[in-house]
Amino acid sequence: MPEKIPQKIKSLRKKTEKIEKEAWLLIEDAKTLEELDKVRVGFLGRNGTLTQLLKTIPQLALKYRPEAGRLANALKRKLEENLREKIDALHKEKEEKGLEIDITMPGCAQELGSTHPISQTMAEISRIFKNLGFKVVDGPEVETEYHNFTALNIPEGHPSRETFHTFYLDDGTLLRSQTSPVQIRVMQKEKPPLRIIAPGKVYRPDATDASHSFMFHQVEGLAVDKKINLADLKGALTVFVREMFGKKTKMRFRPHFFPFTEPSAEVDISCIICGGSGCRVCSFKGWLEILGAGIVDPNVFKAVKYDPESWSGYAFGMGVERIAMLKYGITDIRMFFENDVRFLRQF
Ligand SMILES: [Zn+2]
After folding, report:
1. CA–CA separation, 78 vs 65, rounded Å?
2. Of 41, 109, 232, 283, which residue is 20 to 30 A from 164 by alpha carbon distance?
3. Domain match, 276 and 157 both
């Protein structure tokens, strides 16, 4: 005679079967881990259907409790197992798809960049001199002592060759401390006449402050031709300063010394802030120094095997940061290199 199943247990079994069926369908239907977690909470969460059922067991008569507990716990294990399998399946599916793409997410806006103020200034300098017949050339940033110093008539023992003025590399080369070695490289390769400018980075072991940086930019200029003189230099630079800083800008030469030019001059422009009457920017002098220039020293021509009797030339070099700071009224050189988009966005 088959054992008589009590009514209480019969109804409990029915309930667990119903829950199992419901849960199985919902687990199968879940498309994402989030959906699946909602299913889990619906059955096994604090107020979940199965949790509620388990809570009724202690209210049953003592003799029914073991069987009721066995049924409910078997269902709980079964549900947890189904959930785990589905989680694995969803993870696997995600991996197979590669990146999960949610097309409802807002897109990443691409911000349009702008040309860096230093690049803009170099482009403007290049444009002006190209109109005067100059060719833009490039040279290496790692240089030999010969190109950076010796060929430019800077003798051994000159202070600029000291280690605290130049970055030397282990193999005896150096990071160029000026763009002037490009003059030498071009003259070694090409026959005169020539007109070149060489924009680029230079390096000096200077402590960084508002007006110094261990890396900055220069533009070197060189013209070699028959009978070139100071008036030609002055003419080219006058065109440059007027185009760069405005038609009313005045220019003056102050005698100076550079090893690679003779005579040499430092070139000032009338202060672009006060127009020459004196202000804080020009230290109340009315003039701003913007570059160095001069007539090419015959020793430089000899180093590149140009005949100083037949050829003459002028050279100049300017700091791009200085020109940009004056043009745009920037007071701290570090702003160019900090990559602060609030600054860069203004150009
Ligand atoms: Zn001034």
Report:
1. 20
2. 283
3. yes
Average pLDDT on 192-210 reads: 95
Weakest-pLDDT range from 163-167, 181-185, 239-243, 284-288: 163-167
Same domain, 92 and 222: no
- Residue 1 inside a domain? The answer is no
* Structure tokens given for 35: 């959906």
Q: How far is the CA of 212 from the centre of ligand 1 (A)?
A: 21
The percentage of residues in the chain with a pLDDT greater than 70, rounded to a whole number, is 98
Per-residue pLDDT tens over the stretch 4-17:
778 888 888 999 99
Question: How far does residue 263's CA lie from ligand 1's centre (Å)?
Answer: 28
- Examine the fold and report which residue of 62, 97, 132 is the final residue of a domain before the chain moves on: 97
What is the tally of structural domains in the chain?
A: 2
CATH number at residue 162: 3.30.930.10
3-state secondary structure at position 222: strand
Q: How far is the centre of ligand 1, averaged over its atoms, from the C-alpha of 334 (Å)?
A: 22
Task: Look at residue 3 in the predicted model and tell me its pLDDT.
Answer: 59
Would you state the pLDDT for residue 225?
Answer: 97
More confident residue, 94 or 143: 143
Q: Under a CB-based contact definition with an 8 Å cutoff, are residues 39 and 23 in contact?
A: yes
Instruction: Say yes or no to pLDDT of 111 above 80.
Output: no
Mean of the per-residue pLDDT values of the chain? 91
Residue 324 sits in which domain range? 117-344
Say whether both 290 and 223 belong to one domain.
yes
Angle between helical axes of 117-131 and 320-328 (0-180°, round to 10)? 100
Is there a single domain that holds both residue 158 and residue 18? Answer: no
Distance 131 CA to ligand 1 centre (A): 29
DSSP-assigned letters across all residues of 148-208:
HTGGGT--TT-GGGSTTTS-B-TTS-EE-SSSTHHHHHHHHHSPSSEEEEEEEEEE--PPP
- Which residues crowd ion ligand 1, with CB under 5 Å? 271, 273-274, 279, 281-282
Mean pLDDT of 37-50: 91
